[in-house]
Design a protein that fits this description.
With about 270 residues, this protein is of the alpha/beta class. The chain has 12 helices and 9 strands. The protein is about 35% helix and about 20% strand. The longest helix has 13 residues, at about 215-225.
Length: about 270
């Protein structure tokens, strides 16, 4: 690893530039990348799954921390730079060219892998919702350490009653612990995005019994899809939802942002039953 040239030199030599169409913004600050790699805890000997490594800035930090990294990169322009990193750290880096939305992560990364990624903006939320979904729990991943736009990160960790509390908050918190690990200034990226970014860290916890993840997803999508409306309006098209509110003693004139995560879970459990 010590023999590798600076990341800026590699980017220049391979003629790389961040693709707006792919939602790319390169992060080059080595100290900042090392801090992100430390968020999941000690990674020596651990398996890590990374999406969108680009020229390999975060990948370098993960490999330097002793992780065995499986990285999925859609942009083939970045593959030669990643190959250099793979050669400098034999056996620690596997690079797969492909679309992360079309890949079976559990199969290629293995059960118990940490997910650490500066997610491309255009696929970040879709991947996040997928990793939180499904009825199999605990999930295949051990932890998620993900870079998002700060606005999205704040939604994930938001509490009821706040303006940022919404569907992502409930899906992240009903069977996981979510925290905002660090904020990242826009000037740290090349090119600088228009917005600030932040890293969230999520670890799974025991799932509430008797709750269908699919039902919870449908309930939150309906409730927050019309968040200005009362629950009696936003949930009226969801079979069993209004009956569940009555059974649980939840006032149907409340709005979605006033319900706690436990209340959404109770509604989903009642409908599932």
């Amino acid at each position: 690893m010590k023999d590798l040239p600076p990341l800026r030199d590699i980017i220049k030599r391979h003629g790389l530039s961040a693709s707006k169409a792919l939602g790319q913004n390169f992060l080059l600050d080595g100290q900042l990348l090392d801090r992100i790699a430390r968020v999941p805890g000690p990674l020596k000997g651990e398996r890590v799954y990374e999406v969108g490594p680009g020229p390999g800035g975060l990948t370098r930090a993960l490999v330097s921390a002793g992780a065995f990294v499986t990285a999925v990169e859609r942009d083939r322009r970045c593959l030669p730079a990643l190959d250099e990193l793979s050669e400098a750290a034999p056996g620690q880096l596997q690079v797969i060219e492909g679309d992360a939305l079309a890949i079976d992560e559990a199969q290629i990364a293995g059960e118990g892998a940490h997910v650490v990624a500066n997610l491309p903006y255009n696929v970040g939320t879709a991947l996040f919702v997928r990793w939180l979904g499904g009825d199999e729990w605990p999930p295949w991943w051990k932890s998620l350490t993900l870079m998002f736009q700060q606005e999205v990160a704040e939604r994930i960790v938001a509490k009821p009653g706040s303006g940022t509390y919404g569907r992502l908050s409930v899906l992240a918190q009903w069977r996981s612990e979510a925290k905002l690990a660090m904020k990242v200034h826009r000037s740290a990226f090349v090119p600088p995005p228009k917005v600030m970014s932040a890293v969230v860290h999520i670890v799974p916890k025991d799932a509430p019994a008797g709750v269908s993840a699919a039902n919870l997803e449908r309930i939150t999508a309906a409730a927050f899809g019309q968040r200005r409306k009362m629950l009696r309006q936003s949930l009226k098209g969801l079979p069993g939802a209004l009956e569940a509110l009555e059974q649980l003693g939840i006032d149907s004139e409340r709005r979605a942002e006033t319900l706690g995560v436990e209340e959404f879970v109770a509604i989903a459990r009642t409908i599932s039953a």
